[in-house]
Amino acid sequence: MGKHLDFMDKMERFKLIKWYISDFFRAKAAFGLENVGFLFPHVKTDTEEAALYQVSIKTFDSWVVYDMKRWDSEINMFVDEFQLVDKRHDIDLYKESTESEQKEIRDWLRKLIEESYFTENRDPDEICEKCCADLGHYIEPKNLFTVLHEEVPPIIKRIEHKNGAYYIAV
Fold it and tell me: CA-CA distance, 143 to 151, in Å (whole number)?
């Protein structure tokens, strides 16, 4: 909750990490393994050849398509590696419990606003811990985040800075 709003988008992008031979020995020692070879797939491929991939996510009204293609230099075009169609991307399997938890958080938040809790800068972790303590059970941070950002007009404002974010009454 305290990270910048584009944090998850940045984290979801994948990056190829280069391992040096010394990293394999460190992994072997750290995990107490006899051999780290099982971590890697056994495929016959030319590792010297560069590979170009294209990953796309297409969002439609009732489904999302995740598509990965690889450039085939022999035929000079992209060929499908895999395609995943997610027809249930917008379904919350826990909708009823999510809605009841968000209602509980809304009521709790109204009380805090009346008590002038947000007159000082409040760290997201502090808010979440207080919510859990006051309500007497664990709450999903995403539900608290949703409720904090849905107020119209906004009563509580999110202020971002280089070390994260905090919330304060407007």
Answer: 13
Domain span at residue 65 reads 49-91
Task: Look up the pTM and report it.
Answer: 0.46
How far apart CA 1 and CA 7 sit, in angstroms, is 10
What's phi and psi for 59, nearest 5 deg? Answer: -105, 125
C-alpha 53: how far from chain center: 23
- Cα separation of 109 and 102, whole Å? 10
Regarding whether 135 and 99 lie in a shared domain, the answer is yes
Residue 7 lies in a domain: no
20, part of any domain: no
What are the average pLDDT values for consecutive 10-residue runs of the chain, which has 170 residues? 63 61 75 70 62 85 85 88 77 69 90 87 88 90 85 69 74
